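Morning. Coffee machine broken again, so started the prediction first thing and wrote up yesterday's gels while waiting. Chain of 291 residues, entered below exactly as on the submission form.
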Amino acid sequence: MNPVVSCITPFFNAAPWLPDQLESMSRQAFREPCEFLYCDNGATDGSRDVIASWQGRLPGPVRIVTASDRKGPAHARNVGLREARGEYLVFCDADDRVNPDWMDAMVAEARASGTEFVSGSHRLWDGSPGPCLARVTNAARGKQLDYLPMMQGGNMLGRTEAIRALGGWSEDMITGEDVDFSWRAQRAGYRIACSDRAIMEYRTRRRLHGTFRQFFRYGYYDILLLKKYSNRPRVRKTLRRHWEEIRPIPAALLHVLQRREGPEEVLWAAQIAGKKAGHLIGSLRFGHFYL
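Came back before lunch.
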């Protein structure tokens, strides 16, 4: 009998973080048939051995599939898409962890809403052991880059037939492939529901400079994504809105001068600053202005 759900996780040299992810998968409350596909994007650090050691401890069979012929999470997810047998596909990244209700809540929301896609909620997590108490948000509750909502590629559910009809993820996207996929899905008429019970803890860098660098890269490649969708309706930002977006940064800078690690609000400001800087440099580099 085919599983109801296939859980797909791309990985590359994730051995230090996989135990947290696998442990969270072992605690899933979902009681219908499911399978776990781990898609190897060319790992050389023993990640496969870590995953194999959890065989029998997850609530469904674990399969490791090879996806090393092309780099990037988009390709790894597409390989998992071809291998999956479930009616629903759920996606989680190798360095994050999910709450015990995550899979059950995703499927329940899909069935109750009748939508093709479900966006899970998330907390920012610095990798510390124990519970994470950061505030919960959902990316699909607002517009991404002033256009359409997005689903995080590592925190979503999709009906298998809908994902295959869309052709999976665009493998030419270096990053932002989840935004691109979400926008293509909505432009094709598919719907997205949000789940408040399905919570993923998204691992962020623990130091401010690492957080800034991570989000600078996101912002830089946002511009390439926006250039791809240059026919979208344009929104002109007011000065007030610009200020509202950058307001947390000055106070955070004072904290940065005193210490390199910061509480949630300081890391959040580092993300905003990184994104803004990435947007500026990307706009200059790619000739498509967005701040």
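Residues 264-286 form the longest helix (23 residues). Going to sketch it on the whiteboard this afternoon.
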